[in-house]
Amino acid sequence: MDFFIRKALAGVMVLLFLTSCGLSAQAPIYTGFFSSLALKGYDTVAYFTQNEAVEGVSKYQTQYKGATWYFSSDENLQAFKKEPTKYAPQYGGYCAYAMASGDFVSAQPQNWTIHKGILYVNYNDSVQKTWEAKKDYYITNAQKHWVTIEPKD
């Protein structure tokens, strides 16, 4: 029994060490734990050009800020490559509502808004509705947090 306790304790110590080394730091672009896809593979340019959430395909992809971005067409891929900051979601694709409190929370690509030319995504339908009602307030607060906690490449 002693062997198993020592083994478990060693595992916990390794996990604590790795966490303290910065492995728990947030990525600049939200991709989820087991993925490298930004916006879960949705085409970020399509929000602007088609006014809807459109799934991208692996045929049209690029790398940006450590994430893989899919697009639904070569035209959208080229537009993103030319101006990635114009099309990438605000706060790296983390939930805009949660960022107003300084929290890194996942977002769903179907819960989106373009406001003043900027793409924002949120956690779910309920959060999206709450955020929409006072979006300028939430954006102002999120910006205050983002400038101090924005993950670097």
Concise summary:
By secondary structure, the chain is an alpha+beta fold. The protein has helices spanning 2-23, 44-49, 74-82, 84-87, 96-99, 125-133, 135-149; strands at residues 57-64, 67-71, 108-115, 118-122.
The shape, in one word, is globular
Helix and strand succession? HHEEHHHEEHH
Structural class: alpha+beta
Uncertain stretches of 5 or more adjacent residues: 12-24
Largest sheet: 2 strands, antiparallel
Rg over alpha carbons: 18 Å
What kind of oligomer do you see? single chain
Helices, by number, come to 7
Residues in helix, %:
40-55%
Distance between the termini: 45 Å
Overall pLDDT level: 88
Share in β-strands: 15-25%
Number-wise, the strands total 4
- Taking strands numbered 1, 2, ... along the chain, how are they ordered across the largest sheet? 1-2
Describe the protein's architecture and organization.
The structure is a single chain. The protein is of the alpha+beta class and 153 residues long. Helices cover 45% and strands 17% of the residues. It contains seven helices and four strands, in the order ααββαααββαα. The protein has helices at 2-23, 44-49, 74-82, 84-87, 96-99, 125-133, 135-149, and strands spanning 57-64, 67-71, 108-115, 118-122. It has a two-stranded antiparallel sheet. Strand 3 and strand 4 form a beta hairpin. The chain starts with a helix and ends with a helix. The model is unreliable at 12-24 (pLDDT under 50).
